[in-house]
């Protein structure tokens, strides 16, 4: 399994044709206390760089973009009852959704962990 | 998360370095770099409701209006009974334009010294203070002196344990102040103005201190076990839970005191006599009712409705949200907005549209969280 990162602070774990998507620890820290996560319905398509989810913190609503194009196969139901999972385990139990990857070529150009780390340090 | 209201480089407040030293995340707001949070909005919110929080509100404008006829001069610009305000008392009032639109909301304290000329201390919003000053300079008579206290910081200590902590630090200086009373005292050589007021719904105090001593006072207060520094984020969620309007969001020149549900700020004598800006229109609205009214709305579920969301009654658009968010004390979202008066009564069921979804909302009597002001021993 390989993990990639976007400059919009999403992460994506790729396992064959399936990918799991969430937001990074840096992103949850910037957003603060998360009270609601709106996820795309299973069966819908998301497009790379377009809105896929909305994260509501106490303070504001923020869009989350799809890091890659594909069809959503599964969403993390645990976020419905416990949205704060995104704060406590952003890159683990607080994942957002899974999708089938439409075009693996889109993975090129995403960052690996080391590149993302230095990207965040430069912010 | 941008709070920036203008493009100018934000200025630094007296406590800037102190906030950063306490781990604050700073954001631009009202022309200044301001602490939005330290450890997190919910933790800070809950700390304030249970203990006490120190808020730096030094971005707000502190003004003095003085002169023999200062009360009458202020009454020409505000709808409050300023003449009846005794020394050491404060009240909430509104700066009105000629049409009765709200230019700002503010606190007025009578700080006249014994035997001295009448003097009123005004605290106005940070984002509007330069416009307020220009408006006051233009409309106050020449014999009235307007002083902008630019070298004063303003600290608010809010929460049920605020009085306990302040008494330990300042001893008897607080006296037996009750809600909406103020005084001043010497702390060493530092002159501190204090009032029992705030904007969180909690018992609390606001302290006007010389900027050069702000770090000393803030550090001294936060050394008390009850007090932690709290950011603007929690200040906003606290004031929303308290049902208090926020200028620039819930109030503007397009809103009048009647629509804004602030008729308590129009004193009885002034209702009879008029003589404040827009009096004819406002007294008409008082008699006949306004077309729209500010209401508090309780939402179900967890999805908040934010400023700008449309409010519906069935298929009919009946209003708009002016501020909204998640209420940490209550565990569900709340909002304020303006709706057509026919839909403004307590208990009315409405819907708010958020990203195409209709969220059920009920008009409630405010505040959302009961006020905890100190009005004297029971």
UniProtKB/TrEMBL annotation, chain A:
It holds the Pfam family GCV_H. The glycine cleavage system catalyzes the degradation of glycine. The H protein shuttles the methylamine group of glycine from the P protein to the T protein. The modification N6-lipoyllysine is found at residue 59. One of its GO terms (biological process) is protein lipoylation. This is Glycine cleavage system H protein. Binds 1 lipoyl cofactor covalently. The glycine cleavage system is composed of four proteins: P, T, L and H. Its cofactor is (R)-lipoate. NCBIfam families: gcvH, PRK01202.1. GO terms for cellular component: cytosol; glycine cleavage complex. Belongs to the GcvH family. Keywords: Lipoyl. Residues 18-100 form the Lipoyl-binding domain.
UniProtKB/TrEMBL annotation, chain B:
GO terms for molecular function: aminomethyltransferase activity; methyltransferase activity; transaminase activity. It comes from the Bacteria. Substrate binds at residue 206. One of its GO terms (biological process) is methylation. The keyword Transferase applies. It catalyses: N(6)-[(R)-S(8)-aminomethyldihydrolipoyl]-L-lysyl-[protein] + (6S)-5,6,7,8-tetrahydrofolate = N(6)-[(R)-dihydrolipoyl]-L-lysyl-[protein] + (6R)-5,10-methylene-5,6,7,8-tetrahydrofolate + NH4(+). Its EC number is 2.1.2.10. Residues 293-369 form the Aminomethyltransferase C-terminal domain. Transmembrane segments: none annotated. Pfam families: GCV_T (PF01571), GCV_T_C (PF08669). Residues 16-268 form the GCVT N-terminal domain. The keyword Membrane does not apply. It is an enzyme of class 2 (transferase). GO terms for cellular component: glycine cleavage complex. Keywords: Aminotransferase, Methyltransferase, Transferase. Belongs to the GcvT family. This is aminomethyltransferase.
């Amino acid at each position: 399994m390989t993990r990639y990162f976007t400059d919009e602070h999403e992460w994506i774990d790729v396992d064959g044709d399936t990918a799991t998507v969430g937001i990074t620890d840096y992103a949850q820290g910037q957003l603060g206390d998360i009270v609601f996560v709106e996820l795309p319905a299973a069966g819908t398509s998301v497009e790379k760089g377009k809105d896929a989810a909305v994260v509501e913190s106490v303070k504001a609503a923020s869009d989350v973009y799809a890091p890659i194009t594909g069809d959503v196969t599964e969403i993390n139901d645990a976020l419905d009852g416990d949205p704060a999972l995104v704060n406590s385990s952003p890159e683990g139990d607080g994942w957002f959704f899974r999708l089938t990857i439409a075009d693996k070529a889109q993975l090129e150009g995403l960052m690996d962990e080391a590149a993302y780390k230095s990207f965040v340090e430069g912010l | 998360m941008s709070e920036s209201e203008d493009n100018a480089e934000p200025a630094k407040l007296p406590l800037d370095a102190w906030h950063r030293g306490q781990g604050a995340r700073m954001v631009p707001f009202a022309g200044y770099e301001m602490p939005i949070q330290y450890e997190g909005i919910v933790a800070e919110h809950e700390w304030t409701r249970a203990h006490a929080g120190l808020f730096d509100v030094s971005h707000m404008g502190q003004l003095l209006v003085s002169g023999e006829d200062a009360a009458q001069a202020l009454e020409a610009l505000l709808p409050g009974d300023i003449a009846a305000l005794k020394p050491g008392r404060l009240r909430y009032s509104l700066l009105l334009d000629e049409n009765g639109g709200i230019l700002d909301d503010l606190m007025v304290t009578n700080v006249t010294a014994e035997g001295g000329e009448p003097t009123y201390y005004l605290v106005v919003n940070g984002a509007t203070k330069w416009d307020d000053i220009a408006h006051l300079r233009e409309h106050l008579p020449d014999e009235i002196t307007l002083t902008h206290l630019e070298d004063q910081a303003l600290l608010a200590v809010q929460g049920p344990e605020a009085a306990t902590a302040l008494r330990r630090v300042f001893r008897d200086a607080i006296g037996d102040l009750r809600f909406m009373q103020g005084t001043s005292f010497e702390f060493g050589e530092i002159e501190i103005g204090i009032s029992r007021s705030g904007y969180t719904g909690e018992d609390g105090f606001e302290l006007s201190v010389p900027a050069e001593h702000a770090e000393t006072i803030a550090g001294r207060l936060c050394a008390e076990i009850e007090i932690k520094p709290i950011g603007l984020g929690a200040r906003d969620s606290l004031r929303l839970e308290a049902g208090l309007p926020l200028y620039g969001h819930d109030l503007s020149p397009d809103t009048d005191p009647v629509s804004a549900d602030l008729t308590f700020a129009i004193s009885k004598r002034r209702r009879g006599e008029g003589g404040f800006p827009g009096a004819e229109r406002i007294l008409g609205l008082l008699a006949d009712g306004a077309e729209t009214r500010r209401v508090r709305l309780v939402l179900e579920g967890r999805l908040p409705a934010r400023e700008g969301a449309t409010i519906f009654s069935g298929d009919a658009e009946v209003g708009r949200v002016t501020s909204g968010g998640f209420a940490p004390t209550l565990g569900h979202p709340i909002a304020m907005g303006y709706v057509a008066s026919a839909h403004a009564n307590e208990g009315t069921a409405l819907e708010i549209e958020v990203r195409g979804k209709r969220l059920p909302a009920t008009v409630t009597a405010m505040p959302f969280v009961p006020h905890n002001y100190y009005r004297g021993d029971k």
